[in-house]
Design a protein that fits this description.
The chain is of the alpha/beta class and 218 residues long. It contains 6 helices and 12 strands. Strands 1, 4, 5, 6, 7, 8, 9 and 10 form an 8-stranded mixed sheet that branches. A two-stranded antiparallel sheet has the order 2-3.
């Protein structure tokens, strides 16, 4: 697996990451959601360089121009719920992509520090021989990403797979590299560890709560 870590080359992504991590700035939910979109837009642009293109002639007011258009059919898939603003960033650029959604969530056990990851819902077109871009802003253990991908395989086998995340733990990167070696991983930053509740350290907190408000844990 190829791993592209945006933190290794400072860019505007670094600024948006700073704002999403900052405990004061991130309290502005609208700004937090927009920063998720911005990182998604930049990653979409970088992924677009890996696509195949076809030549297309178009009529201009003054003649004909030879242009290029992506030739790869794209399915943009998202792990709910924190993935929605991140997904929108990709969709802003891949505006003709088909879309898929997977509900993968943690169900904590009685002790409270261990959990199972469950896939409860999926809506997806066929992904057979298409380019699959699977996005989730937080890659803590990699389990949700793997289960989401396995669920999507019920709808076909993609030609190419790109996985995108805002922040990943090194443990999750190692896990995804092992489980999904055929994919390319794009990540805004890789943090060293996770805590006993499997939250990324230093991370940024709960991306879903920061984007949409705190939820009741049941």
């Amino acid at each position: 697996m190829e791993v592209i870590n945006f933190a290794e080359t400072p860019s505007l992504v670094s600024r948006y990451m700073l704002e999403m991590r900052d405990a004061h700035i991130q309290r502005d939910a609208m700004r937090f959601r927009r920063n998720l979109q911005r990182v998604g837009e930049i990653m979409a642009y970088e992924i677009s360089k890996r696509l195949s293109y076809r030549n297309v002639e178009v009529n201009t007011p003054l003649g004909r121009a030879l242009c290029q258009s992506p030739a790869d059919p794209i399915v943009l898939a998202t792990i709910l719920r924190a993935g929605l603003p991140f997904h929108q960033g990709f969709l802003n650029y891949f505006d003709s992509a088909e879309n898929a959604f997977v509900s993968a969530y943690r169900r904590y056990k009685e002790r409270g520090d261990t959990f199972d990851v469950l896939v409860e819902y999926m809506a997806s077109p066929t992904i057979e021989e298409k380019t699959l871009i699977l996005v989730d802003p937080m890659l803590a253990t990699g389990s949700s990403m793997e289960l989401g991908y396995r669920a999507l395989l019920n709808n076909g086998t993609p030609a190419r797979v790109h996985i995108a995340s805002v922040i990943a733990s090194q443990q999750a990167v190692d896990y995804v590299v092992k489980c999904l070696p055929q994919a390319t991983l794009w990540v805004g930053a890789i943090d060293d560890s996770i805590n006993e509740m499997s939250f990324i350290i230093p991370g940024l907190g709960d991306a879903g709560d920061l984007a949409f408000g705190e939820k009741l844990d049941r």
